[in-house]
């Protein structure tokens, strides 16, 4: 009996020792009731995933190639937009001013505004940080407050905490808040800081393409189609139409995911589908609508709830 009791005591002590672990967020020693590869700290709220395997680091050549590819796409797109704008103005300018001077001035002003919005939005999306997480204290109990790392995970690539809805991009070599995907055409990630710029750029390009199509349709029966300007107008009409179709499809896809409170990465990752509530409040928050608009469109109760959700996601 004494030998059996000693064995039972040893087995219990070994089990308790196997379930002891340390929280990466606050450094506190935790004792789990049962073994779990994924657990959450009761003090700081940090989530530890012991089963997560790291992918093999990219080679220097592969990283260099991705950087060159992104810069090449950005350069080509900038030159393409400038080509469409400049040649479109050159081809349409005589016909518009032949109608009336007032019509020509209005057309030039509208073209300038749409062109500036489109090019500036594209440049902000391409060269602005997609949304780097804020640096917060971690690793030691005295400096980590209660729930200070709520639902944070540890990024082994950046060696620092990763906020909820953030992902590590191996092309940008950083964690990005609300990362949707890495877009090679802007050479940057689509995240919390530049997602809205892409939406505005889509609206600008779509509006400019519609104006170009209307002008081309009005001049379709004109003798200009036999000249160099006419050939350029034909090219611009097909180019604008194809670009607009692609942008409209991407725009509606992004707006749908924003409405659902989701991102592209979370959509394709079946194991990480935890996102916020869907509704119009997500679109209003995305476009930065003021609190008064929340109250008018969503009602007082829902507006307050949406504001709380929005503020909790800001870092």
From TrEMBL:
InterPro entries: Palmitoyltrfase_DHHC, PFA4/ZDH16/20/ERF2-like. The chain crosses the membrane at residues 72-93, 99-127, 203-226, 232-252. The DHHC domain is required for palmitoyltransferase activity. Its main location: membrane. One of its GO terms (cellular component) is membrane. Its EC number is 2.3.1.225. GO terms for molecular function: protein-cysteine S-palmitoyltransferase activity. Residues 151-269 form the Palmitoyltransferase DHHC domain. Coiled coil: none annotated. It catalyses: L-cysteinyl-[protein] + hexadecanoyl-CoA = S-hexadecanoyl-L-cysteinyl-[protein] + CoA. This is S-acyltransferase. Keywords: Acyltransferase, Membrane, Transferase, Transmembrane, Transmembrane helix. It is found in: Membrane. Belongs to the DHHC palmitoyltransferase family. It comes from Musa acuminata subsp. malaccensis. It is a multi-pass membrane protein.
């Amino acid at each position: 009996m004494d030998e059996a009791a000693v064995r039972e005591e040893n087995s219990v002590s070994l089990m308790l020792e196997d379930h002891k672990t340390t929280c990466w967020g606050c450094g506190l020693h935790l004792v789990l009731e049962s073994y779990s590869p994924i657990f959450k700290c009761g003090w700081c709220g940090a989530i530890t995933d012991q089963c997560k395997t790291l992918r093999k680091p990219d080679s220097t050549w592969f990283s260099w190639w991705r950087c060159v590819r992104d810069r090449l796409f950005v350069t080509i797109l900038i030159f393409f937009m400038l080509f469409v704008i400049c040649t479109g103005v050159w081809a349409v300018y005589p016909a518009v001013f032949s109608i009336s001077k007032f019509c020509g001035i209005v057309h030039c002003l509208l073209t300038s505004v749409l062109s500036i919005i489109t090019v500036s939005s594209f440049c902000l999306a391409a060269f602005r940080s997609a949304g780097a997480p804020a640096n917060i204290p971690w690793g030691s109990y005295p400096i980590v407050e209660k729930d200070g790392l709520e639902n944070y995970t540890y990024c082994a690539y950046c060696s620092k905490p990763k906020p909820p809805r953030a992902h590590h991009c191996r092309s940008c070599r950083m964690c990005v808040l609300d990362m949707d995907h890495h877009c090679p055409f802007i050479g940057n990630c689509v995240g919390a800081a530049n997602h809205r710029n892409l939406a505005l750029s889509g609206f600008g390009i779509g509006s400019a393409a519609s104006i170009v199509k209307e002008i081309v349709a009005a001049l379709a029966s004109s003798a200009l189609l036999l000249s160099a300007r006419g050939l350029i107008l034909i090219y611009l009409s097909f180019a604008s139409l194809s670009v607009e179709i692609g942008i409209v499809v991407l725009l509606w896809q992004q707006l749908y995911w924003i409405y659902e409170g989701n991102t592209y990465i979370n959509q394709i990752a079946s194991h990480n589908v935890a996102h916020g509530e869907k509704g119009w409040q997500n679109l209003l928050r995305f476009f930065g609508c003021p609190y008064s608009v929340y109250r008018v469109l969503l009602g007082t109760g829902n507006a307050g709830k949406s504001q709380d959700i929005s503020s909790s996601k800001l870092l």
